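Thread: quick sanity check before group meeting

JM: Hey all, I'm pulling together slides for Thursday and realized we never actually wrote out the predicted structure for the chain we discussed last week. Dropping the sequence here so it's in one place. If anyone has concerns about the input, flag it before I start.
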Amino acid sequence: MPDSASRNEFTVQGIAASQGIAYGQIFLYLQNEVQVPDYQVEVEKRIDEVARFDRALVLTRQQVARTKSEVERNIGPEEAAIFDAHLMVLEDEALIGETIREFESTGRNIETCFHRVSTRYVQAFSEIDDEYLRERAGDLRDVTQRVLRNLLGQEESSLNKLADRRIVVAADITPSESASLDRSSALALVTDSGSKTSHAVIVARSMKVPAVVGVRDLTRRVRDGAWALIDGYDGVVIVNPSESTLFRYGKIQERKKSFEARLLDAVRLPAVTLDGVGITLLANIEKSDEVGKVREAHADGVGLYRTEFLFLNLGRAPTEEEQFEDYRRVVESLAPSPVVIRTLDLGGDKPIAGNASLFPHESNPFMGFRAIRWCLENREVFKDQLRAILRASAFGKVRMMYPMISGADEMARANAILEECRSELRARGVPFDPALEVGAMIEIPSAAYTTDLIARQSAFFSIGTNDLIQYTLAIDRGNDRIAHLYEPTHPAVLRTLRHIITEAHRHKVPVGVCGEMAGDPVFAPLLLGLGVDSLSMTPAWLPSVKYLVRSMSLADARALAEEAMGLSSPAEIYARCDAFYRARVRLD
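JM (edit): ok, ran it. Output follows.
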């Protein structure tokens, strides 16, 4: 009998990151940060010190390239593409140049200089509000730890030598470590930190390994060899599960597998409600190489193409030509389906690391010099992007939208710059779609309550619920102490959503939602009932939402929305939405 007989069962709630259920013993993977020595380098040895840095970079590139090849061979090309970002870090002129300048000015050993500079870069990414982009700090940390180990002559960290089948529990897992997981011995992956968008989780998901992240201090509460049950569907970790718990989860696993099979069947079918109403379901993407995921999800197109990744990956503002090629690839690949490209949402909380002149430090970056505010003041960078988007529109169906619009004046200023770009392209004889539709993201309360004014200059709206909820409720989602107050079903949020939709429709402007609420099957019926015209989400979430759409009537969703608008408690509204979902989704 395992430990469950002698120890008490306890449950820890985390974030469901990769679906599946696993039961087995824990392998407690306790990594240590590289200890960096700090000493002065003699003047006559400084040329050799720089050469040592160059050799470490070359060795690290070889290791990353080898990892990429192994992942491509064993898992797939999309997962292997994760390591392209790692290789780009190793070619980053700003990172390498700053390290050399730090060494030249201080004379401290190259490990110390590289550690200081890379820590600043990691910190910059860690402070980004966008979850996906914030997780890139983990990629950067992974690469820099590799470089430091190579400088110090230490072995690579690896998880490929598990003695037997185990559940890996760690404080965090780097993409390199997750790639080294042996599918035949890793039963599941659990981490104290991380999110469902981290590259380590993406690799685990591709390997069909159940994963739960964000379980806080589990590594301090369990011992190596303890027995645990991992629920990657609901983000639950049960340590020392009882016989009755194991029996109950055996039944749950059977039902989940049956439900997953039905989801795969539904995703190929049209998103039409039981009362015959077609619903537009779109995908959110961050990079041009995610087009395959859009097709696999049978999405109706792309409702949000975040363009920050290209800027952050290069560590500089890409040229018009570089952006055009990137956008064209997506637009051409998905034509004739629409692609909504969001203009740059950088600045404040999302600086280009190493370019402090463009993004000075701010005490309150979330309400600072960012997104459209930054673009309007950096016209040449903005115009490069606008011309690139316009040029891409000649290759398919493109729509464009501005982020963080606060009112009609900003919309007018942005559109005036866009008109300049149109004139410049006409003068150059460069083709573009003259009927390109331009819209605004509604994610600030001031925009929400001047929707009627902004609508006069917009072809469509896309509601960014993540920021709209955050700003409406004055809640920082990244602050663990108050994150529980982030409530999508708060009456203030629902009233704001209804106001936006009502005013937009009064001006014959369609409204979509591209925030996390859109991809949650519990909230999707509420949004549709409020009158939203389309939903855009991470491709992986689309099958669940489509299945629910096909299992409900729009009339019932409207009744749910009316009922919700009459309630005062966020918990009560959520319970109604959850009950609506469960009544229509059979897990047996």
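AS: nice. The first strand starts at residue 10 and ends at 13. The chain has a mean pLDDT of 86.
JM: adding both to the slides.
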